[in-house]
Amino acid sequence: MKSLAVYFTLCAFLVLTSCKKDKKLTTEAQVITNISFGDDPAQKMDAYLPEGRNEQTPVVVMLHGGGFVAGDKADVSARAQQLSAQGFVVLNVNYRLVNIDGVLSNPIVHKPSPVKIADQLNDIQAAVNLAAAKSSEWRMSSDKWAVAGHSAGATLALLYAYGDKNTGGRVKVAANWAGATNFAFQDESEVKLLDPRIVEVIYRAVGAEPVQANILAYMAASPMWLGIQGKALATINIRPEFNNVGDLPDGSKTEYDKFTQILTEKGVTNKRVEVAGADHGFSKAGNWDLVINETSAFFKARLQ
After folding, report:
1. pLDDT of 232 above 50
2. Concatenated DSSP letters for 22-87?
3. Whether 160 contacts 125, CB under 8 Å
4. What is this structure's pTM?
5. What burial class does residue 292 get, using C-beta atoms within 10 Å of its C-beta: 0-12 exposed, 13-18 middle, 19+ buried?
6. 302 close to 172: Cβ distance less than 8 angstroms
7. 92-125 pLDDT per residue, tens
8. How far is it, in rounded angstroms, from Cα 219 to Cα 55?
9. Coil/strand/helix, residue 240
C-alpha cells in the first residue's frame, strides 16, 4: 500500500512538472514568419510573440508604408521587434499592392488597378481574423487590439480602425506615423495642380476617376472624413517635422492640425506628437525610439 502511494505521488509530481514545463515553453518569445492568410503570395504576416505573454497580452497590427504601391513587412520588422519587446504581440502584415504599370511612362498609361485600397483593407481584415482565431494558441488577448502603420500603412491603419472592417470593434486604438489623412478635394481644379503621376496613383488606389461626381469615393478613402462622420477612435498622430515624400511639397502640418481639431471636437481621445528635425522615414538616430515609446505608452493606457 505504501509503495502504491509513493507511485501515485511520483506520477502526480511528473504530471505537474510536465505541465509547468509546457506552460513555460508556450510563453517563451517566438517569431512565426510568413503566415498565409490568403491565396496571393503577398498575403502573409509575421507574428512576434513576447516572452511571458498570457490571455491579457495586447496585440498590435503593424502595416508598412510604400504609397500603397510598394513596401514590405521587412521594412518595419525592427519596429515590430521594438514593440514586442515592450510586451505586445505584434502582427507585421503584408498586403497586396496597387499596380503602377505605366505610371512612369511618357505619356502616362491611364488604367485601373486590380488591387485598390478597399482590397488592402480586406487583406488586413483577413489577417486579423486568422490571428484572432489563434488567440488561445498564441496566448494573447482576443479583444485588446491596436493598429499602427507608417506612411501609407498609417492611412490604412486609420481606415481599418475607423471603418466597417473592424468588426466587433476588436481594434480599439490606432497610431498614425507620418500618414496622409485626406485625399478628398473641393473641386477638380485642385486635382489639376497635382503631379499627373500622383493623380494616376491615387486614382488607381481609390478606384474612381478624380472628378466631382466621385468625391464620396475619395472621402471614403480619407481618415479625416471618417473622423468628421464620428467614426474615429482613440488615435495618436506622430508627425515628423519634415514630412516630405520625394520632391512633393509638405502640407501635412495644416492637415494634422485640422485632423487633431476634428478628433478633439468629436470627443475622441487623441495625442499629437511632433518629432523635431525628423524626416518622413524617421531616419535620424533616436527618432524611432521616440515614436515607439510614445505609441507604446498611448496603447497601454487604453488597452488595460
Report:
1. yes
2. HHHHHTS-EEEEEEE-SSSTT-EEEEEE-TT--TT--EEEEE--STTTS--GGGGHHHHHHHHHTT
3. yes
4. 0.90
5. buried
6. yes
7. 999 999 999 999 999 999 999 999 999 999 999 9
8. 38
9. strand
What's the Cα-to-Cα distance from 86 to each of 154, 192, 274, 303, rounded to whole Å? Answer: 20, 46, 22, 14
Q: What is the pLDDT of residues 261-274, one digit of tens each?
A: 999 999 999 999 99
Q: 195-198: long-range contacts (C-beta < 8 A, 24 or more apart)?
A: 195/248, 196/108, 197/103, 197/104, 197/108, 198/248
Place 18 in a pLDDT band, splitting at 50, 70 and 90: very low
Q: Whole-number mean pLDDT of the chain?
A: 92
- Which pLDDT score, from 0 to 100, does residue 26 have? 54
CB 44 within 8 A of CB 64: no
Residue with cell 514545463: 21
Cβ–Cβ < 8 Å for 128, 61: yes
List, in sequence order, the alpha helices (H) in the chain.
Answer: 2-26, 77-85, 117-132, 135-138, 152-162, 188-192, 196-206, 215-220, 223-228, 252-265, 287-302
Q: What angle in degrees, to the nearest 10, is found between the helix axes of 77-85 and 287-302? A: 50
For the chain, first and last CA: distance in Å? Answer: 52
Q: How many CB atoms lie within 10 A of CB 134?
A: 14
Asked if the model's pLDDT at residue 20 lies above 80, the reply is no
List the Cα angle 206/94/72 in 5-degree steps.
95
